[in-house]
Amino acid sequence: MHNRSDQFSKNLLRDGLSLASAAETEVEVLAATQKIDVYSVPDPARQAERAGMGLLGELSAEPSLFEPFHRTPSLRQIRQCLRKQLTWHHELERRARPAAGSVAPDEDVDAPPQPAVDFPALVVIGPGRPETVLDAYRCELVQPGVYHAVPGLAMRVVVLAELPRTRATLLLRLLGSGRLLREAVADLAALPDDAWEKSVATPLLVHFRLGAHEPTIGEEDDVSAEIRAWFEEYKQQLRAEAQKEGRKEGRAEEAARAVLTALRVRGIVVPDVARERILAEKNPEILERWHERAVVAASLAEVLDDLS
User: Fold this and answer.
1) Rounded to the nearest 5 degrees, what angle is found at the Cα of 155, between the Cα atoms of 144 and 98?
2) What pTM value is reported for the model?
3) pLDDT tens digit string along 168-179?
4) Which contiguous run of DSSP H or E holds residue 48?
5) Which of 24, 75, 152, 172 is most buried, with most CB under 10 Å away?
6) Dist CA 27 CA 74 (whole Å)
């Protein structure tokens, strides 16, 4: 997975899952040339956060490999993912042996059994319905857009086109393209500003869709223009907030210098440490209080709070 859409998918899944899991991208699988796109291990202390993550939270309730595809995956591609899953489980068992003080079975026939290691689930995500895959692994529909393979494989197949258009599926639907992505972006924009989905997805959408090498309309999908329009509005909001913050910081600096001027007029020496403290203060109420004290103070201790 090397193109921008694939990188966006991996980063979106990683950052979304990190709300309730320890998630990392491109986990190296030893003794193999492949890499897991995203590997997620749920954090028991963040169960509440995971419960509010909708379908992504459900899919990450156990250690899982996430493999998103920009196009509907083929049977050959799924086999490659299964190879990653099996190899990674082998690696987890290998890592668990030293921690448990055990050895590999072929090293000592009298060795105690190896520590049990949970078999990680495999979550395959694609835009369309992979008929050959669903047939080959006897996948059954468990909820709209989500299929489970035979239990021994611990494989889930998510068909983005079949997911209901709800908030619970939003972060996953953002992995789609064309109409799927257009609808997901519209749904994201309609959420409250403090929605967790916005905090996760918006920076990544801006980064991966508005980079220096942004393709022309139609080069990847037909949604580029609409995404650009939404991002432009979002960036304008960011610029407005930055300007507002800049004006606030400017006023704070002006007030801090007024305090220093009053102290200088009073003939009070201000050490470098105290000067830096005054200039670093951003609270206008504190600066105003210091200024009121400075115009009548006989010493620096009468101006600054808790000055030893």
Assistant:
1) 145
2) 0.64
3) 999 999 999 888
4) helix 47-51
5) 172
6) 22
